[in-house]
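[PROTEIN RECORD]
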Amino acid sequence: MLGSETWAQPQSAPPLVGFSFSPKSSELASRDPGSDLRRLLSATQPDLVRLPIYWDVVQQSPDELDFSSIDELLEVVAQHNLTAADPTRVVLVVGARNFLYPELHQPQWAGAREQPYIGDAQSAPEYRTYFVSSITRYGGSPLLYAWQVENEPLDYVGNELTGQDEITASQLAWEIAQVHELDPAHKAVVTTYDGWNVAVDVLQLYAAPVLWRLGGPSGHPEEALQAGDALGLDLYVDGPHVPHGITTVGLRSTWKQQAVDFWANRAHGMGKEIWLAEMQAEPWNGETSFTPLDLLDSAADYRQEPVDVVLMWGAETWLEDPTWLAGVTHAMDLLKSR
């Protein structure tokens, strides 16, 4: 269960590497999102940047859509590409669940923030107009690399602002089908957290009754893999939901590497991609137990695995701490190395 052994791997082709950026983080810090994104693009020269199409921002009233905030960020990327040695492309996240607290970005007019009310809101014409309009508006953009459909849609993310907030399997299937129908040129990635290690993943996949006796599953990687064209794993080696006390950050990084290897082989065997959709690249809530050196160690571990995309998480920290920004640029260079 707590195996820590690692193994030598042949060097695979480097993944596309980038980061996630939320304009809400900049706004909470009283900064301009466009300026923040411009600075991050210049400093890191990423292959990809993940941007949200927040439902509560785009559709603040039921009969009105406003995509101006997304258009402005895409223009920042386009301007960056005019002088960049290599162009940056975007992953757009669409759905009621989107990245950044509180995960469910549902407008107030849509009703209660828990199931079955979330499902009712997503089945209504207003939400479907938001979803379809997002795909048709940006599906033809030369900046677009892929879609992410919802964020950790099958996982329960409990907080004081939402109740039971998983997206139903039928709703997720409808959304992925819409992406495939309206924009067949781009893949749809589905994400999930992966909380423990490969032993738990194997039990969850092949011996679920045994795992329930040990406390239950951790994330939904198999379901996410089956649902989309790519599996996106959200990997955090330090934070409130990781096993402290009996482990170290280094050991947990090794566990994650083993899990990535397992899911990469499974995904590629199905003709699908494996992404690290959120690779921890900042301390959790400002705690200092995760350092830039830990980030570089994680990058060295993950570089040994045949992943297709790596998106780092922690842009708000990098903007405020030059040490972290330097660490991130070094980690990106390591992941891109051949």
About this structure: Confidence is low (pLDDT under 50) at residues 1-7.
